[in-house]
Structure formats: structure tokens, C-alpha cells
Automatic annotation (TrEMBL):
Organism of this sequence: Xiphophorus couchianus
Example GO BP: DNA replication
Upper taxonomic lineage: Eukaryota, Metazoa, Chordata, Craniata, Vertebrata
Protein name (database record): DNA topoisomerase I
Molecular function via GO: DNA binding; DNA topoisomerase type I (single strand cut, ATP-independent) activity
Similarity comment text for this entry: Belongs to the type IB topoisomerase family.
Length: 634
DNA sequence: AGCGATACTTAGAAGACGGGAA
DNA sequence: TTCCCGTCTTCTAAGTATCGCT
């Protein structure tokens, strides 16, 4: 089905939505201005009409009638009423969260052994034991903290008798449980085609029932409609709580949020919700408090929803606004480097880092509750080393710390003299464990930033610098005359420059070396094939009048061409993959790069958008794909 | 100012899927 | 047709930021 875009003169984002709708759905929307829009839709709807109408719905605002045609992938912009400040919706209806299946007790022939003796565990203890057994192949289970936390929490689930017996994790033998789990995974893989299809159908039913909600009469996908199943907490890095038991969430733990008029979702039989609220200033549909960290978790909409899309658009608009005043803000913090006030100096240096290196803000964290990681404001003296001179540069700051997700940030950066001197000053008579910016925190920093520009916070710099870098790199790296494969390599390289700036790392894939070798051997094979094809082509040219018609020669020439193209493509792919070994592009693509830059680039370069964004990404960025012209500038 | 609660974005890992080579 | 590997999708942890209270 062809996509059709109805454009209103005003292209502000809130007029926008893409979705599969029926004509009837369209009319249920509160369409304010119906002149251009409604007639356009009607024309389009009529052109798609195949079935005879059963009834004739009419538009709520103009009372025009139209047959109930079903339009697929119609992309529409319309004017919806803007809500007053803070209000996120007028109506919200959903079926509540999906609960994970109950625990299935182990069969009798699968046993846990303690100190070499078979031991039948109570249901609760058995379930938790299985959590551990399932993870035996994982490095986690070798870590002291993980084992201790697990054991402590496991004992809490045991009966008094079990607790008396099981006093040492080392004496526990989970091997049968582990094997049982592995068999189960294998069995699932080995299911017949039909059985797999049945599974799929069953899953689809769950998605159909729980995966969507009705928000202001739009059917929207929910991002995480399944409650998190119980298990062992897997923190990142040296997390002090790793291995603790994540308890099963009961309906009594769950708060439901929906509109007053809606029928609230029914709790599972014999249960009740913790609360049912009607708060339209928030976007979540359900929430619960998780037991390991005590934080609140939410069920929210999918990234392709209007609510999330609008927010995303706003984020990039703020970053673009920063573009127009970043020069004066830079002047400001460079001036502040000489301020008489210590706070201002610290703030200036922190901003210099955040702007130049795209560091995160660095909120303070509760000690001992999480892994020891830092961001800009929470940097400690031990995380930086100053070099008056290093590798031919003066005033070099060496950073070495663990950031978000315990990903290491290591960088040697030449800085301007004033910054260097200030850092020296901040470090004076401090211990390695002391804070570098002892007068500064993120609240202070953000307060200052918002006084410079409305909505400006520390993280906007990351968005701004990421997006502007992509735009610059794309301009620098791509030529209109390149072929698509070359253009894509350039795009990925631009993307990679951003990922490096933002320090988006990944563990090198386990199979990396192998797959790289495979690719290289394929390239070698292709080269041989090409050489052969070329020889044959020459031969055929030579004997063209004797043995072959001209077309045969043409065909061979085409084969050579095809072979050359494929070889080139593979070589580019190899370069791309090699450069990408430890770098993750996805995070920046999804969260930092204004999609309109990529869309405009695709239009300018005649690259199909599908080469850049997969289906999910296209859905998330539908707003940008739809509204962006080739001349867009970030 | 400091703090805890809250809401929402950003993040890498793991698991599921599916398309091409053998 | 099967199997393998890269890509997509899901999962949920870990950040940022703000607000209201003391």
C-alpha cells in the first residue's frame, strides 16, 4: 500500500501521526480544521474503497459522511487540541500488565543435592535454586558478592528445616537443575514447525490483548507490557547487590493509571491492585516498586507512540536552540574560568568537559547501593592525571574512570592552559578519593544552564554535540558521486565518530575474529572468481564472431561488473566491521542523532531510508521521515 | 541547601529471528 | 533442508532531571 501524506501548511510536530487507521477511526479524532485535511482524506479514502459500506459514520466536527473504508498506513497530519501544561492525555484505557507464568515445580527425577545427598526442596526454595542453576554457565555465579547475596536471599525463602540443613553454598549441587534447564531450552528449539507456529500464535494473542492501549482514542503500542519476571538481580560492573532475589510481582504491588471514565483493567482472579489512579499528568499505565533497589518501575508506551515521538522531537528542538546560542555560552564559561568565585570556576571547568568531551552530568549516588561509577560532576581526584606535557602536547588531562553501566572512559585530552591551571588548583591538598568539583553538583550546574537558555540542561550538550558532529561528518565524508555502498560506509563512519565521542562501547562479539576471517576468505574467493571472469571475458571478446553472439559477451561483461561490485561491497563491509569492533552505533543512532539529519542526507544522496533505519527505527522516527525535506539543517 | 520520591531517557546484554550458504 | 551468523527485538539496569518538602 502506498503511503500518502496529507500536509497542512503548518508542519509543527504535534500535527503529526502515522498509523494504520480505519476511516472511522479518523473521524473519531477531534479534527479542528477540517478543510484541507478532511477533504484530502476523503478523496484518498474513497480511492481505496473496495468494500461496500455497512454503515455510514460521520465526522464529528463537520458531519460529513463517508464510507467505512479501511486505509492502511495512511500518514496524516492534523491539528489536535494542545493540552494545558503538564497534561499528557485526556483519556487512557488499557488491559493492565501481563503477568509472567506461575512457577512450574521440577519433575521428580530432577534433584537438588546438598553435601552429596538428594534433597527435596520446598516450592519457594526450589524456584530460587533454579534461578541460580540457570545461570551456572555465567560468570556471575563465580563472583563472591553475587554468591553471597544469592545465598542470603535464598535462605530467606527456605523453610526452617531447609535453613538448618543448607548452610554452605559450596555444598550445593545444582547440576541436575542446570541440565534440566538446558534440556528445556534445547527442546524449545527443536519444536516442529507447527508447534512453533502455535507458540507464535499464542504469543500474538497476548500481544493483542495486553500490548496496546487506547490513548485519546488512538490505539498505541505499549513498550513493556510484561511485568519483569522474578530472578536474580544482574547489576552491571561491581554492583554490591548483584545476586539478590528479584521477587515475583503480585497484583497487590501494582498501581494502575487510567482515565476515570475507563473501566480499569481487571486484576487476576482473587487479587486486587495496590491502587487505581487517574493521573493524566504522567504517561505511565502501571507501576510497581522493585524490591532490590526500591526504585519505581513503569509500564509505558512504545517509542513509536505520539507521546514519545513528540517528546523526542522536543528534545532535538532544544538541542537546535542550543546551536544558536552555544557560542555565547562558551564565551561565558571561558570567562568564568577566571572568576573569583570557586563555584563559578568549577562550574566552568565542568562545562568545558561536558561540552568538549560529551561527558554525562554525573549525579551523586548513594554509596554502597550501586556500582562505583561517576560522571562529570562526581569525578574524583583519582580519576584524572595531569601531564604538563605528553606525546608532544602541552596541558594534557588523562581521564580514567568508570561511567554509566561501568563502561570505562579512558581519554588523553589536551586542554587550554586556564582549564589546566584550574584543575591543578582543584586538586590541591586533596586525597585521591576526594571530589574534584567539591563545590559543584548537577542541580547547581543545571540551574545555571537554565538561566542561560530555557530548557537547557547538561545532557543537551551531548545531544547537540552528537547531532552537529553527525551533520559535519556527513558533509565532509560523503560525495554525491559515490555508490550506495560507499555512501553507507561514510554514514557509518560519521555515526561512529559520534559513538566514539559519546563513548558507546560494546564487548567485541565472541565470534568476531572468526566472522572477520570468514569475510576475508569470501573476499579472496570473490577475487579469484573475478580474475577468472575477466579472463573468460577476454577470451570471449577474442572469439566473439566465431563462437558467441554479442549478447553472450555482454552477459559476461555484466557478470564481471556484478562481481566487481560485490567485491567492492564486501571490502567496504570488512572495513566497516573492523572499525566497529568495540563500538556500538545503535545507542547514538537511537538517542542522540536528530533523525532529520539522516533523513535529509538520504534524500540528498539518493540512499533509501531502509539502508539507514530498520523497521523499528523507521517507526520510531516516522515523524522525521515524514516531515523532513532535503534542505533540513540541524 | 539538601534530600527523597518520582518520572522519564539512555544503555549494553541477551535472546529471538530469519536469510543465505552448504 | 539445515545450520550458522548477523541483525533485530526485548529486557531491564542505570542514568538524568525535577519537584516538593524540611
Amino acid at each position: 500500500m502506498k503511503k500518502r501524506c496529507v500536509c497542512l501548511p503548518d508542519q509543527r510536530f504535534h500535527n503529526y501521526l502515522t498509523r494504520t487507521v480505519s476511516a472511522r477511526d479518523l473521524f473519531r479524532l477531534k479534527v479542528k480544521s477540517c478543510s484541507i485535511l478532511k477533504s484530502e482524506i476523503l478523496i484518498f479514502a474513497r480511492s481505496l474503497c473496495k468494500k461496500k459500506p455497512k454503515e455510514t459514520p460521520s465526522c464529528s466536527s463537520c458531519r460529513r459522511s463517508s464510507p467505512p473504508v479501511f486505509i492502511s498506513l495512511l500518514s496524516v497530519r492534523w491539528e489536535e487540541e494542545r493540552y494545558e501544561d503538564g497534561v499528557k492525555w485526556k483519556s487512557l484505557e488499557h488491559n493492565g500488565p501481563y503477568f509472567p507464568p506461575e512457577y512450574q515445580p521440577l519433575p521428580d527425577d530432577v534433584n537438588f543435592f546438598y553435601n552429596g545427598k538428594k534433597m527435596k526442596l520446598s516450592l519457594a526454595a526450589e524456584e530460587v535454586a533454579l534461578f541460580f542453576a540457570q545461570m551456572l554457565d555465567h560468570e556471575y555465579t563465580t563472583k563472591k558478592v553475587f554468591r553471597e547475596n544469592f545465598f542470603k536471599d535464598w535462605r530467606k525463602e527456605m523453610t526452617r528445616q531447609e535453613r538448618l540443613v543448607i548452610t554452605d553454598l559450596e555444598k550445593c549441587d545444582f547440576r541436575e537443575l542446570h541440565a534440566f534447564h538446558k534440556d528445556k531450552v534445547e527442546a524449545r528449539k527443536a519444536l516442529s514447525k507447527e508447534e512453533k507456529q502455535d507458540q507464535k500464535d499464542a504469543n500474538q494473542k497476548i500481544v493483542d490483548k495486553y500490548g496496546y492501549c487506547l490513548l485519546d482514542s488512538h490505539r498505541e503500542r505499549i513498550g513493556n507490557f510484561k511485568l519483569e519476571p522474578p530472578g536474580l538481580f544482574r547489576g552491571r560492573g561491581e554492583h554490591p547487590k548483584q545476586g539478590m532475589l528479584k521477587k515475583r510481582i503480585q497484583p497487590e504491588d501494582v498501581i494502575i493509571n487510567c482515565s476515570k471514565e475507563a473501566t480499569p483493567p481487571a486484576p487476576p482472579a482473587g487479587h486486587h491492585w495496590k491502587d487505581v489512579r487517574h493521573d493524566n499528568t504522567v504517561t505511565w499505565l502501571a507501576s510497581w516498586t522493585e524490591n532490590v533497589q526500591g526504585s519505581i518501575k513503569y509500564i509505558m508506551l512504545n517509542a513509536n507512540s505520539k507521546l514519545k515521538g513528540e517528546k523526542d522531537w522536543e528534545k532535538y528542538e532544544v538541542a537546535r536552540k542550543l546551536k544558536s546560542c552555544v557560542d555565547s555560552i562558551r564565551d561565558g564559561y571561558l570567562r568564568d574560568l577566571k572568576s573569583k568565585q570557586m563555584v563559578a570556576r568549577q562550574r566552568a571547568v565542568a562545562l568545558y568537559f561536558i561540552d568538549k568531551l560529551a561527558l554525562r552530568a554525573g549525579n551523586e549516588k548513594e554509596e554502597g547501593e550501586t556500582a562505583d561509577t561517576v560522571g562529570c560532576c562526581s569525578l574524583r581526584v583519582e580519576h584524572i592525571t595531569l601531564h604538563d606535557e605528553l606525546d608532544g602536547s602541552e596541558c594534557v588531562v588523562e581521564f580514567d574512570f568508570l561511567g554509566k553501566d561501568s563502561i570505562r572512559y579512558y581519554n588523553k585530552v589536551p586542554v587550554i592552559k586556564k582549564v589546566f591551571k584550574n584543575i591543578k588548583l582543584f586538586m590541591e591538598s586533596k586525597d585521591p578519593g576526594d571530589e574534584l568539583f567539591d563545590r559543584l553538583n548537577t542541580a547547581l550546574l543545571n540551574k545555571h544552564l537554565s538561566s542561560l537558555m530555557p530548557d537547557l540542561t547538561a545532557k543537551v550538550f551531548r545531544t547537540y554535540n552528537a547531532s552537529i558532529t553527525l551533520q559535519q561528518q556527513l558533509r565532509q565524508l560523503t560525495n554525491k558521486s559515490d555508490n550506495v555502498a560507499e555512501k553507507l560506509l561514510s554514514y557509518n563512519r560519521a555515526n561512529r565518530a559520534v559513538a566514539i565521542l559519546c563513548n558507546h562501547q560494546r564487548a567485541p562479539p565472541k565470534t568476531f575474529e572468526q566472522s572477520m576471517a570468514n569475510l576475508h576468505s569470501k573476499i579472496v574467493a570473490r577475487k579469484e572468481q573475478l580474475a577468472l571472469a575477466k579472463t573468460e571475458l577476454k577470451l570471449r571478446l577474442y572469439v566473439r564472431f566465431v563462437l558467441f553472439g554479442v549478447s553472450m559477451v555482454d552477459r559476461k561483461a555484466a557478470a564481471v561488473k556484478r562481481c566487481e561490485d560485490q567485491l567492492l561491497k564486501m571490502e567496504l563491509q570488512a572495513t566497516d566491521r573492523e572499525e566497529n569492533k568495540q563500538i556500538a552505533l545503535g545507542t547514538s543512532k537511537l538517542n542522540y542523532l536528530d533523525p532529520r539529519i539522516s533523513v535529509a542526507w538520504c534524500k540528498n544522496m539518493d540512499v533509501p531510508i531502509e539502508k539507514i533505519y530498520n523497521k523499528t527505527q523507521r517507526e520510531k522516527f516516522a515523524w522525521a521521515i515524514d516531515m523532513t525535506e532535503a534542505d533540513f539543517e540541524f
